[in-house]
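Justification of computing resources. Each target in the renewal requires a structure prediction run like the one illustrated here; the chain below, 291 residues long, is used simply to show the kind of job we budget for.
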Amino acid sequence: MDRRDEQPSEWEPSSDSSSADTRPTTSATGPPHSDTPSATSPNAPPHSDESNGGSILGTLARLFVTALLITALLTGGAILAPVVIDDLDSIDSIGDLPLDDRPAPSSEPPPAGERNPAVTDPDDPGPSSYDTDVETITSDDVEDFVHAEVNERRADHGIGPLEWDGTVASVSRAHSVDMNERDYFAHTNPDGEGPYDRFSEVDNYCRAYGENIAMTWVDRPVESSGQDEVVEYQTAEGLATGLVNQWMNSTEHREAILEEHSDFGWDRGGVGVYIAEDGAVYASHNFCLEW
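Resulting structure tokens:
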């Protein structure tokens, strides 16, 4: 059974504003100086050498004191200049610089199951990753979180958990990387092969097979599918929740997860995630009913 997901529309805000590097400046001014010449009356006795020497020393002393005062004023101005903000919690931004609102790092993902099955798809790329400012997002962690969350959604509707299948996950992962490398987003690849064709080339123990796919980005704003909001995935846990939300907000994909599509149900499944170097994320969640 073939199910198709719409690629979420990408939204990257453009900004024409430039941030100015502003530095606090301090200025300090001392008292105004008045260099008033000393006047002598015509009847004053002539200055002696000693009085001239004393006058010179006095002038030098006054200049020294004045220099000390100016230095003290400048130092005091530099110390008193910074502005103290008592309550940072009440401030949303400083100028055009928003305060840090990054998400917390992911919790420890619940291990989904076997990572090295006896049979794997030869085109399985293995683990992939992307570094954000919060953590290194690894495809293994995203797959574990997706598997756990899908089972939680099933439990909410009274449906038993899917068993993790490493071979199914390997086939899923090979399809995810193929979509990225050959630049398409579909259940049927450019060679005309559908989900069951790709699995049967690797192994043959599923009598029914289904697939959900999704595409998004990490570390950039994207428009969240079905939720009318902009999000930015910077953690494995947040990315996994976003992928599951995409599927649950689409009728056909939700029916596949909750087994509302036919009389039979799934008993196992595997998640295959590929994270490209540019932050593109392709995910395939494949379902299997074993013979």
